[in-house]
Amino acid sequence: MAHVSAFSVFIPIAVGLYNRGMLEHGLKNFLLLLNINLVATVGQLILNLNRVNNLWLSHVFVLVEFTFVVWIFSMWVEALKVRKLLRGFIVSFWLLWIISRFTFEPITVPPAYVTPVAKAILIVISLYMIFRIAQTSEELFKEPRHWIVSGIVISSAASLLFYAFRGIIDKFGHDELFIAYSIHWSIQIVANIIYSIGFLCKQPTHSSGGPLASAR
Amino acid sequence: MQTADPQFWWAFGIGSVTLLAIVIAYIVAVASGRRRLIRTQKEQIEQMRSFSSRLQAIREEERTHIAREVHDELGQTLTGAKMYLVTLRDSVRTSRPGNAPSLLKTIDSVIKLMDDSINVVKNLASELRPDMLQELGLTEAIRWEAVQFKERTGILCIVNSQDELMALGKERSLAVFRVFQEALTNIARHAKAKTVDVHMRKNNASMVLEVKDDGRGIREQEIADVRSLGLLGMRERAVFLGGTLHISEIHENGARGTKVTLTVPLEAESHNEKKPGDDI
């Protein structure tokens, strides 16, 4: 199931590539992130098979994922202040990530602090994005950004809990461990299916520039 | 499965509560977003209503203005001309050989009054539909309006335009020109600006008209104000053209100001194609 979950990212990638010509800029960037995710997964697998520590890849991917997702959100938000705030989050997270690597969470240990923080921030920002999309989009279920952001909320929530409880989960017995991992993997599969739905939605024509108020 | 580890249940419980909290937050976010959307739509309807009544008022105002111009200017001139013609007729009836200079003087007066009448008609027509636009095209009409604006207000207005700028068609050119006029009117009324920069350029299949001033700027509340009928009128014209209008405050190197950007597709599109929700 671990491999099914890890490679379920193939589904949104395939759908996204099929519809690539119709995707708007932010969604294309998200598709690129999914491709990076796939490469990171394959890389981790190869390193694991060669018995090389692959944890550094997880750490690096969290940084890449956070940067991509928040940058994409900042592209979708037209209000200048919010856009600046989101980009400020990226800079702050980079600082936290660099500091943590040299202090409390070296790159060779399992992610336990910075990743949950990243996921928690992503959940909060995603919920804000959901609010903004619901506020501006008449047909929420035909809005690709709604599906993508919802997928991010689901995926981040699962990852937040998984990494926050990693210390406890690793001490579980075989059955409990299987349940915990199964829940985590299932949620990741669901998130990937939701991303695919997002890529399948008809892309609306977006205007450029100016806050929402100016479009009213 | 054997009795689970207590730590498992603890983690499971905390995890479930956290997930539940996220789900609730998600529902709240969607619900509040939808509520805002409904409120915005109501405001838009309200705005359209007030715009419509304002439009009626403007129409009436315009009719009154034209009626006044016709009555006060044209009416008086024509009455004067008629009186001269009556005098002329009487003079011709009782004409004597030595009266020719006096008759010529009366004819000159009639011709002068006719010239005045023609000018009044020209001015009226020009106000109703700018001559420049028809004769020289949009770019030159905008340059001309910029010069007139400088003369009226003392605010310097610089127009930069791509030379190969596009023909938009009569109606669309007029709509763009009216948006430009409204932008200048707003600057003169509210901005306290010293300079206005106007840029016209072609961007892919669109024409972009950008009007930037160095005035006091504009607040978000002012942009969103339902009573800003001038702004609403500009937006309505933009939607009519199948384009977009964005108004924003400028903060560049400590300088303030307002930027109005009108984007109009060069090819005519069906009206009101823009849907809400195109921007987040």
Could you characterize the architecture of this molecule?
The complex is a heterodimer of chains A (216) and B (280). The termini of chain A are far apart. The model of chain A is unreliable at 206-216 (pLDDT under 50). Chain A contains 10 helices and no strands. Chain A has one domain (2-204). Helix content of chain A is 76%, strand content 0%. Chain A is globular and about 50 Å long. The longest helix of chain A has 27 residues, at 174-200. In chain A, helix 2 (10-18) packs antiparallel against helix 3 (25-49) and helix 7 packs antiparallel against helix 9 (174-200). Chain A has 216 residues and is mostly helical. By secondary structure, chain B is an alpha+beta fold. Chain B folds into 2 domains: 1-128; 131-265, 2-Layer Sandwich (Heat Shock Protein 90), CATH 3.30.565. Chain B is 64% helix and 15% strand. Chain B contains 7 helices and 5 strands, in the order H-H-H-H-E-H-E-E-H-H-E-E. Chain B has helices spanning 6-93, 100-128, 131-136, 138-153, 170-191, 220-224, 229-240, and strands spanning 156-161, 195-203, 206-213, 244-252, 255-265. In chain B, strand 1, helix 5 and strand 2 (195-203) form a beta-alpha-beta unit. Chain B is elongated. The chains are: A mainly alpha (216), B alpha+beta (280). At the A-B interface, helix 6, helix 7, helix 9 and helix 10 of A face helix 1, helix 6 and strand 4 of B.
Query: How many domain modules of chain A?
Result: 1
Which ranges of chain B are low-confidence, i.e. pLDDT below 50, for 5 or more consecutive residues? 269-279
Helix content of chain B: 55-70%
CATH homologous group name of the largest domain in chain B: Histidine kinase-like ATPase, C-terminal domain
Stated plainly, the CATH topology of the largest domain in chain B is called Heat Shock Protein 90
Shape of chain B: elongated
Interface with most residues: A-B, 48 and 45 residues
The H/E string of chain B reads: HHHHEHEEHHEE
Helix and strand run of chain A: HHHHHHHHHH
Count of DSSP-assigned helices of chain B:
7
The overall strand count of chain B is 5
Low-pLDDT runs of 5+ residues of chain A are: 206-216
Taking all Cα atoms into account, the compactness measure Rg of chain A is 18 Å
Structural class of chain A: mainly alpha
